[in-house]
Amino acid sequence: MPDKSTVRVAVTQHEPEWLDLQKSVEKTCKIIEEAAAGGAELVTFAEAFIPGYPAWIWTRPLDPMLSTQYIQNSLAVDSDEMRKIQDCAARNKIVVSLGFSEDDNNSVYIAQALIDSDGAMLMNRRKLKATHMERTIFGDASGDSLLNVSKTSIGRKVGTLACWEHAQPLLKFNTISQKEEIHCAAWPPIVPHQGGPDLWSLSKEGCQSLSQVYAIESQTFVLHATTVITEKGIETMSTEAGLLMNSPGGGASAIFGPDGRLLTAPLDSATEGLIFADLDFTAAIFAKSFLDICGHYSRPDLLWLGRDTKKKLPRVDSGN
After folding, report:
1. Domain of 183?
2. 225-272, pLDDT tens digit by residue?
3. For labelling alongside 236, which of 33, 91, 288, 314 has CA 20 to 30 A away?
4. Which GO molecular function entries does the Swiss-Prot or TrEMBL record give (predicted)?
C-alpha cells in the first residue's frame, strides 16, 4: 500500500477490566470498534491493559493470591482470546497496538502486539527489562524483542516501547534506527507530582516528558497511551495505602508531533475516552530536515550500536 500523507489515529484512555481476561477482551474489542467508528486507522492501548497494570506491586512486594490471579488472567499470544482481538481488528479494518500481560506457560511478560488491519499479527515484543517492583511478577525479554518496528497496511512503519523503556538511550536508538514513523508509547496510570520526595520521573509530568522528548529525538508522531484507575481498581488491588495508583485518576493520554509539540487536548484524568488526531507526515519531513539522528545528523563512522536479536532459550540441544 502506498504511503498516505495523512493518517487518523486514536489513543486510548480507559480503565481496564481488572484481573478479568474475558471482560478485558470484550472491552478491548468495544474500544477498537469505537476507534474505527471515529475514523481511526490505528488505535493504541496502554501498558498491560489486559488484564490491567498490577498496581499492588508498589504497595507491597508480595501478594501471592493476587499474583496467581493475575497470571491466570493474562493473555497468551496463541489463544482464542487473542484471535478474538485479531478478528475484531480485521472486521473494523484498523491497525491495533495492544499492551498486555503475556502469559507464556504461566510466566508473564509486559508485552505489546501490533495487529494489522487484516488481523495479521505483525509483531509481538516484550519489555526488555521490567521496571523496579515489576520484577516481582514479570520476566525479561530476549533479543527478538529488539525487532519492534513493522510496516503496516496504512503505509507507515509503527514502533512500540513500554513505559520507562523511553529512558533507555540504546533501546530508543535501536527503535529509531528501524525508521519508524509512528511510535506507540504504552504507560500505566500516572498522576501529577505532589511535590514530595517521590520521583518526579514517575509522575504524569515526567512520563509525558519522556514521550515528548522521544518525539523530538525520533521525529515520529508519539501516541502516549495511559490507563484510568478508579475506586474499583483501588479496591480490587488494595492500593489505597500505596506509593502509586492510590487514588482515582491516572489518565494522561496525549499525542505529540515529530518536533515535540502537543497535538491534542487532554481528557480529565478520571475520564475514559479516545483521543483522536490526524497525522500530517509533511510535518515529519520538515522535522527530519533539521534533525535525523540515524541519518544526516549521525556519525556512524565514530559511534554505532551493536545488538543481538536472537531469541535465547533456556535449553539448547546439540546434535549431529
Report:
1. 6-290
2. 999 999 999 999 999 988 889 899 999 999 999 999 999 999 999 999
3. 33
4. hydro-lyase activity; nitrilase activity
Report how far apart, in Å, the C-alpha atoms of 13 and of each of 43, 50, 298 are.
11, 13, 36
User: Does residue 305 lie in a domain region?
Assistant: no
Please pick, among 15, 17, 41, 47, the residue that the annotation labels catalytic: 47
- Where on the phi/psi map is residue 145: left (φ > 0), alpha (ψ -120 to 50), or beta? alpha
Q: What is the pLDDT of residues 114-150, one digit of tens each?
A: 999 999 999 999 999 999 999 999 999 999 999 999 9
CATH of the domain at 237: 3.60.110.10
Is residue 161 within 8 A of residue 185, CB to CB? The reply is yes
d(Cα 108, Cα 113) in Å, to the nearest integer?
A: 14
The question of whether 272 is a catalytic residue gets the answer no
Lowest mean pLDDT among 34-38, 85-89, 177-181, 189-193: 189-193
